[in-house]
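Whiteboard transcription, Tuesday session. T.W. wrote the C-alpha cells on the left side:
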C-alpha cells in the first residue's frame, strides 16, 4: 500500500505535489463559497485563502471587491488566479500574523496547532 508521500493523482495536464490535476480544477466553478465569505467578512474585507488552487473561490472574491492573498504550493494552480496577490508555498510553511478588528494580533503557527490557528484566521476575517 502506498503511503501519502507516494500517492500521485491522475487526470488531464499537470499533477500537483498533492495529487490534483490542474486542468480539472481549472474547469470547476464555485459552489457559492465566495458569496458566503463575502457576506461573513463584509464588503471590501481582506481575505487569506489557504489552498487556493486555480482561484475557484479567489477570483470571484476579487470580482466582489475583496483584497485576496491566495496561497498554494503549485505554481501551475496559481497561474490561473487573477487579480490577487499569490504566494507559492506549502500552507505548513506560511507564517501568518492575524490582526483582528480591535488591533490585537496573534502569530499563526500551523505546525503547533493547525485547527486553532485556522479557526483564528477565519474568526478574524468574520470579525472584520
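and on the right, the sequence the group agreed on:
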Amino acid at each position: 500500500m502506498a503511503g501519502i508521500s507516494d500517492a500521485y493523482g491522475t487526470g488531464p495536464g499537470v499533477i500537483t505535489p498533492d495529487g490534483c490535476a490542474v486542468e480539472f480544477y481549472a474547469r470547476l466553478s464555485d459552489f457559492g463559497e465566495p458569496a458566503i465569505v463575502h457576506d461573513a467578512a463584509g464588503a471590501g474585507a481582506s481575505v487569506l485563502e489557504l489552498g487556493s488552487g486555480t482561484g475557484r473561490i479567489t477570483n470571484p472574491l476579487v470580482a466582489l471587491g475583496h483584497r485576496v492573498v491566495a496561497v498554494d504550493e503549485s505554481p501551475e494552480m496559481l497561474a490561473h488566479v487573477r487579480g490577487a496577490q499569490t504566494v507559492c508555498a506549502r500552507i505548513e510553511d506560511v507564517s501568518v500574523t492575524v490582526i483582528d478588528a480591535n488591533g490585537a494580533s496573534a502569530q499563526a503557527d500551523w505546525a503547533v496547532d493547525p485547527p486553532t490557528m485556522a479557526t483564528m484566521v477565519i474568526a478574524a476575517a468574520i470579525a472584520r
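Someone added at the bottom: Residues 1-5, 115-128 have pLDDT under 50 and may be disordered.
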